[in-house]
Amino acid sequence: MELIREHPVLEFRHGRLVKFTFEGREMEGFEGEPIAMALHANGIRVYRETPEMKRPRGFFCAIGKCSSCFMVVDGVPNVRTCITPLKEGMRIEVQRGKGKIKLNHEGDPK
Amino acid sequence: MAEEWKRSADVVIIGAGIQGCSIAYNLAKLGVKDVVVLEKDTPTAGSTGRCAAGIRAQWGTKMNCQLGLASLEILEHLHEELGMDIGLHQGGYLMVAYKESEFEQLKKNVALQNSLGITSRVVNKEEAYEICPTLSAEDAVGFTYHHRDGHADPFLTTIAYHKAASEKGVRFYKFTECTGIKVKGEVKGVVTTRGEIDTPVVVDAAGPYSQHIAAMAGIKLPFYSERHEILVTEPVEFGVCPCMLMSFSGNYYIQQRPIGSIIAGCSPEGHPEDYSLGNTWNFLEHMSRVIVKLLPKLGGVRVVRQWSGMYNMSPDKQPVIGESKEVKGFYISAGFSGHGFMFGPISGKLLAELIVTGTSSIPIDVLNYDRFERGELIEEPAVV
Q1: Which residue range(s) make up the domain with B218?
Q2: What is the mean predicted confidence (pLDDT) over A20-28?
Q3: 248-287 in B: which are within 8 Å (CB) of A?
Q4: pTM (two decimals)
């Protein structure tokens, strides 16, 4: 995992080191830092595959605007990983296509 | 832009939204050779491209029922006529009443609609839940439904008219604003940010700015433009809201786009008339609550975008379509009060007929603006 620990101007501290999985592989990252950042530090560059042309997409705007880093996190698609904080035990997967949104009370009788 | 500037035209239309594009196409279809459309931005950049895409025939006045049904009939075959898909989806409109008086009005509307050939009907709660399986409306007192209502894509529909009109020789000048109308007893021409055009006929199809364009010809239209907000969610499986849900007392309309996104809007508080197009968190919060109450399965679905657009409001919420009685050659197609997109296919056709032949296939004399002075308003009760 490659991340700076010191900055010449800014003072900052990383959070706790936690484990998460990417496509079933166990990885480590700092708690509270963006998921996309943790993945980048682990050498992961492809976060999503476009619905029609099946093209790879990764880190782009980094401010939650562009949809490029949508991933499936703990089963929820369309998560903007560039602005979503990493938590211990998160299950992160590449989003292929549009992703199916789970609706409330799915399967419940009316 | 090395585009040829036409110094004269048979007809100059101001505004390239659904009205302007539909009028232009219909004029060209009727054989008018020299039609120019002025657009201060790009086609669909105004209210058309900001609208909620709904199309319906469930209205409360005879005039609007006739226009709504005739427009639906055109829309149902428009892709064949214009050679382009317009994103038509006829999932019906389910009107929801929460008050007895409102339900009584809806029932009256249905009787009127049925008398005019619109096959709308009153439905009970069980049927309403069959039409919209995820609906929760236990507090509703009644529903009406018309299966031919629905939505079409405002961009595709307008661009289809634009393309078909261009192919018939209509000239569209983008980024060209009308700054004056030359009148000497009758219309003589227009002044724009790019030059002048001599013409005997000007059509005011400027949507929220129609009253300003009319003022340039010395005509006072009693319209105002009101900002309405709207939002869209991320796509969810199609069928969560297969019909348009609409309520006047509930103050909402909600529908699902073909790709699965939910679009929802309501009438604004305070009726903002400042011609700005901002968004507010109040709307986001209010609208989200309304959506989740009606369609509880959507709780947790994310809103991806919100925007706003202007309704060009007339005193009776019915449009003005026709020629001015004060200035010969000045035609108006405006004041649609939030329903310009759905009426565009028929209003464009009728106005083109009026310009070319002096009469229209559906009589629209009552839609002249002199009705406001005479106090003969045709108040439309069915508006969100």
Answers
A1: 1-89+148-223+314-384
A2: 97
A3: 260
A4: 0.91
Please check whether residues B132 and B84 belong to one and the same domain: no
Coil, helix or strand at residue B87: coil
Cβ–Cβ gap B133/A103 under 8 Å = no
Q: Both B214 and B346 in a single domain?
A: yes
Beta bridge partners of residue A96, listed in sequence order: A49
A17-96 folds as Ubiquitin-like (UB roll) (3.10.20)
Span B36-42, average pLDDT:
98
| Cβ distance of A104 and B302 shorter than 8 Å | no
CATH of the domain at B187: 3.50.50.60
CA angle centred on B66, ends B209 and B374, rounded to 5°: 60
One domain, residues B77 and B176: yes
- The predicted-structure confidence for B71-114, as pLDDT tens digits, reads as follows 999 999 999 999 999 999 999 999 999 999 999 999 999 999 99
Distance CA B366, CA B63 (A): 9
Q: Closest Cα of chain A to B129: distance in Å?
A: 10
Which of B133, B235, B299 is closest, CB to CB, to A98?
B235
Listed residues B258, B292, B311: the one ending a domain: B311
| Residues of chain B neighbouring A103 (CB-CB closer than 8 A) | 134, 236-237, 240, 297-298, 301
C-alpha span between B256 and B244 (Å, rounded): 7
Nearest C-alpha in B relative to A110: B134
B300 neighbourhood in chain A, CB within 8 Å: 104
Res. B366: pLDDT tops 90: yes
How many whole angstroms separate alpha carbon A80 and alpha carbon A62? 9
The candidate with the shortest Cα–Cα distance to B367, out of B358, B376, B359, is B376
In this prediction, residue B268 carries a pLDDT of 87
Helices and strands of chain B, counted as H and E runs = 9, 19
Does the ipTM surpass 0.95? no
- Write the pLDDT tens digit of every residue in A59-70: 999 999 999 999
Contact (CB<8Å) B237/A78: no
Are B57 and B75 contained in the same domain? Answer: yes
Question: Same domain, yes or no, for B79 and B188?
Answer: yes
Q: How many domains does chain B have?
A: 2
Q: Does B240 touch chain A (CB under 8 A)?
A: yes
The pLDDT tens digits for B157-179 are 999 999 999 999 999 999 999 99
**Average of per-residue pLDDT across B308-328:** 95
B363, B245: one domain: no
